[in-house]
Amino acid sequence: xxxxxxxPEMKMNYSSSAxxxxxxxxxxxxxxLDELPLxxxxxVALYYGGGLTKGEIAQKMSTTRxxxxxxxxxxxxxxxAHLSQAGYPAMDPMLNAAALNEAICxxxxxxxxxxxxxxxxVERHRSRLASIRASRRAKFLExxxxxxxxxxxxxAAALAFTAIWTWWxx
Length: 170
Hints:
This protein is mainly α. The protein has helices at 8-12, 16-35, 38-49, 54-60, 65-85, 97-105, 114-169.
């Protein structure tokens, strides 16, 4: 984990020794976050890093707010336990929303090739969307054609009925 990208305004908030202590804490916290199960990591990232409420997360994940709250609480407990084992006693007061946000949102190196993979995914979804649109357009035109045929057949039947009725009355 590289903390070379820590924002300058954060560096100004600490003395050099406090900054180093904070850097060590954040490094340990990032390692602890990496050990959480993927879903729990995502929940912690959405809640602490993304600023979403538990209700918003629950709605997006189609589950209850209490289930999300319990998972976040358990993840927080796991993080505290992991940091205690790493030599940071009484971590609970230090493991607040600001520390988690800082660990989640700063200093993470971008994986190699991420930009290219994202662009590939975007292009794949764009082409898939285009094919779906073309398919929907074709289905729509097919339906319009069918409706037009029914209307024409109905008009032809009405004209034929009118012609027969007119002929019958003569």
